[in-house]
Amino acid sequence: MQRQSKYMSLREVGRRLDIPPSTIVYYKDKFQRFIPSSGGEGRRRRYPMEALEIFRRIREMFGENWTVEQIENELALKFSGLVNNDQRDQRLTNVAGASSSGLEAVLAKISDALDDQGLFRSEIRSLRDEVRGLRDEYADMKQSMSSRVSELELRLKDAVAANERLERIVRGERSGGIAFPDSEYLERPLVIRANGEYLGVQGTGSKHFSLKDFVTLIERSASGARVVDTSWQYTSGNWVLVVKLDDSGRAVQQDIVLVTAQTVTPSGNTVTEIVRLNIDGVDAPDSLLLSLFRQVRTVFGG
C-alpha cells in the first residue's frame, strides 16, 4: 500500500476538493494568512493535509453567502492554532535562509505567478472542452428539433388536406363521394310551407321536430322483412334525402326523395324546409305533406 504524502500542491488541493483552479487560487490569495503552507514561494509551496479542511470550509462559507470579513473571523477562531504553528516554522526557515539573495525572492514570486497561470490554463482548457461539448450537443439538439418540426409540418399539411377532403365530401363537391349535412342543419326545425305560412311540429317541452328526427323515424321502420336504405346528395344548394324501401313480406319496393333547403322565416328563425317530396317519381301534393306532419305530431308527442 502506497504511503500518502503529508504535503500537496495547490493543484492537488483543488483536485481533491473539486474546486476550479481559478477559485482555489482566489481562496489562497484572499486568505493566505489563515492557510498553513511550507516550502517557500511559487511552485515549491506545499500545503499540509490540514489545509484541505480550511479550503473546504472556505468554499462552504462562500456557498452560504458569508462575507469576506465573516469568513476571516471564522478562520481566525477555528484554525488559528494551525496558522500559528506554520508561522513559527516559517520564521525558523527564514532565519536559516536569511542569507538568501533578493533575486531568489523575485524568482519565487515569478514561480508562484507561473504556477497560478498553469492552474488558470488548465481551467481554460477544461472550460473550452465543456463549451465544445455543449456546442456539439446544441447542434445535435437543433438538428433533432429541425427534423421534428419538419415531421410535424408534414403531418399538419396531411391533416389539413384530409380535412379539406372531408369538407368537400360533406358538401357533396366530390364526384361520387359521400355527402352528408352537418349536425346544425339536421337539428334545425323541419317545416313545410302552406299558403305562405311555415308549419312545423312542436314536441314535448320546447323540443321541435327536426330533419334528424325524420330520418330516425324512417330508419326505425326497418325490420327483418323491411329494408330501409338512406343516402344523401347535395344538389343546387339543396340537401336531398334518398330513401329506398324494400318490403319483401309485401313484395313492395318504394323510392322516396325528400328535397330540403335552409330557409329563414319572416320572424327571423333559421329552419330546414321541405321543398319537395317525391314518391316513386311523383311529387307529393301539399295536402299529403300536411297529412304527413299530422302523423308525425302524433308519433313525436306534440
From TrEMBL:
Print the keywords alphabetically: Coiled coil
The protein's matches in Pfam families, at most eight in alphabetical order, are given as: MerR_1
GO terms, biological process: regulation of DNA-templated transcription
Please list the coiled coil stretches: 124-169
What SUPFAM superfamilies would the database entry show?
Putative DNA-binding domain
Q: Which residues form the HTH merR-type domain?
A: 8-75
Q: Which Gene3D superfamilies match?
A: 1.10.1660.10
> What's one GO MF term for it?
DNA binding
Name of the protein: MerR family transcriptional regulator
